[in-house]
Amino acid sequence: MTEANPGKPEGQPNSSLEHPFIKTVENDAKSAFPPGDFEAFKRVLADINRQAVDSFIVVNSQEYPGTSFSTFCVSPTEKMVRDAQGEEMPSAKPSQSAEVSEKRIFYFLEPHFHTGLKAGGPFAMLDAATDRVFRELPKKGAEVQRAESDGGQSKTTIRVMPLGSPVGFKGRVGEKFEGEAIDDGFNAYGKLYAEYIEKVVGEMDENTRIVIQGFSRGAVTGERTYHHLIQRLMEKHSNKMREEGKDYGEDQIEEYRMFLYQHVQGLYDEPAGAHRKTPWSFLKVLNFVGLPIEDTIRRKGFKEEFLSPEYDTEENKFLDNFGGDVPDYTPEELARIQKVVGAEFKHLALGTAPDREEPGFYRSPLFDPTNTRIFQVLQESLGLGPERKGLSKGLWRSEGRKKFAVIKRAGHYHVPWRDSYARWAKNIHFVRIGKAA
Fold first, then answer.
1. How far is Cα of residue 339 from the mean position of the Cα atoms in its chain?
2. What letter does residue 301 receive in the DSSP assignment?
């Protein structure tokens, strides 16, 4: 598997580009922050944007020749902590610790169903990546404090990596991937992403943790990614043990499997079409209806609720800096993409029952018309529910569940929880005043 950066725009550094989500969420969240903390919040948002833009790459698969997807990496770093505190990075000092134990945490985010060549890329999950960075930032702040007081006994690297789709932004679909995606559903996605994750993570050890998080359709691909990643890591470890001439029987295999289950976590939000693959049933009809309803609601409702009229134009201009119009697709490549998108729609509608033989956390608090609560969704969307009135208000859920909003028309964004702003504000405050915990 190889990686390629599409390159910086001629005469313009990538870091000067700002995704419109950054300014949108900055304006929307302003009321949650005291003035001093809001300025810190803006600096952290700018750092997230810079990291996302500068780290954007296109990944070419070896498992599936001719298939590629895009991704980027954002991390809560010491620089981000210093930015929140309004301080400059100090000069590097030698560690006073005899041995530094490096901990590594990887978050891989997988996207929901989408259509369109500019959709389905990692920037479509910039909201979820941003939320994860703010969740982890206090941990990094506390680590910086410890390093200042005792020379630092640990070093933690946290990487948040949204994985784009081969049928989305900057993606390509090869013949092998097309065939497997059509015939075998989302298994091909699992193999594709597992190949990349194994390459990025490298050797697994006690100080390494992996979280695979998927949203809607991404929960389905995430399950398959988890399965194939476990298989690849077990095979790799088995080969290593045997090459070293070590005893590696069934007991050792099972012991290593349990080790991986402890260090690789699956987090699945509202798996789309989560019902069994049985003959035609009412649930399948609901899913065929649910997908276009989801698209319609998000196009109309969220555009009125959250976004400016210029948002689409601004995002298109942003993506064009990375070759967003992808003019080099051949007719054959476009046909393969269209076939895979059609196959995804079919597999989601016919049913994608979760494979729960392996460990994983399943959450169902999210608005998603591709599940079985279709009548509740319709009621809320038409403003007939008890919570709010109007189509745009129907995008919100309450009653003890997390309220959330779908950012970007047509579902290009998923769930930056608006009621997370209070937590973001609290975390920023802790980090800014040097009391992260």
1. 24
2. I
Q: Where are the domains of the chain?
A: 2-7+14-88+99-432
432 close to 37: Cβ distance less than 8 angstroms: yes
Sign of the torsion formed by the C-alpha atoms of 172, 178, 180 and 185: positive
* Angle formed by the axes of helices 421-432 and 20-29, nearest 10°: 90
% helix / strand / coil in the chain, to the nearest 5? 50, 10, 40
User: How does pLDDT run across 132-190, given as a tens digit for each residue?
Assistant: 999 999 999 888 888 777 665 558 899 999 999 999 888 999 999 999 999 888 899 99
For 26, 30, 33, 262, 373, the CA distances from 421, given in Å and listed in that order, are 10, 9, 8, 31, 27
Which residues have CB under 8 Å from 73's CB, separation 6+? 51, 55, 159, 160, 161
**CA distances (Å), origin 208, targets 110, 222, 259, 358:** 20, 19, 11, 19
In the block, tokens 């309004």 appear at: 86
Tell me the torsion sign for CA atoms 119, 121, 122, 125. Answer: positive
Residue entry with tokens 């939000």: 269
- Residue pair 110/104 in contact (Cβ under 8 Å)? The answer is no
Among residues 7, 348, 395, 319, the alpha carbon closest in space to that of 164 is found at 319
pTM of the model: 0.81
> b/e map of 397-410 (b: 16 or more CB within 10 Å)?
beeeeebbbbbbbb
